[in-house]
Amino acid sequence: DVQLVESGGGSVQPGGSLRLSCTVSGYRLSDYCMGWFRQAAGKQREWVSQIDRHGRPSYADPVKGRFTITRDKAENTVYLQMNSLRPEDTALYYCAADPYCSNPVNKWRYWGQGTQVTVS
Q: Residue 27: pLDDT band by 50, 70, 90 thresholds?
C-alpha cells in the first residue's frame, strides 16, 4: 500500500524559511519521480519542483533560487527547503509520486494529504 505523508508546514513571516518533508512507504524513492505541488485558495494546483529517479531536480520559475528539493533514500523521504518565503508562496503544499516526471498535474499517481504554508 503506497502512502505519502507530508509534514513541516506552518506560518512564517516574509523572508523566513520552512522545510517540508514527505515520507513515503510502499515503494522506493528511486522507483518514482517525486514532486511538490501547491494550491493557493481559489487557484489551480501548480507544479513547484520535482526530483527524478536519478536524483535530478527541477523547479518552477517562481521558486528557482529559493527552494531546494532533496531526497534521502535511506529514510525514504523527500524534502523541500523553502527560503526567502513570500506571501505569494502561501498555499497548501502536496507531495506526489509518479513513474513519469513529464505527466501533467492531474495524472500523477500518488498524493499526500497536503500541508499548509502561510507567509504573512
A: confident
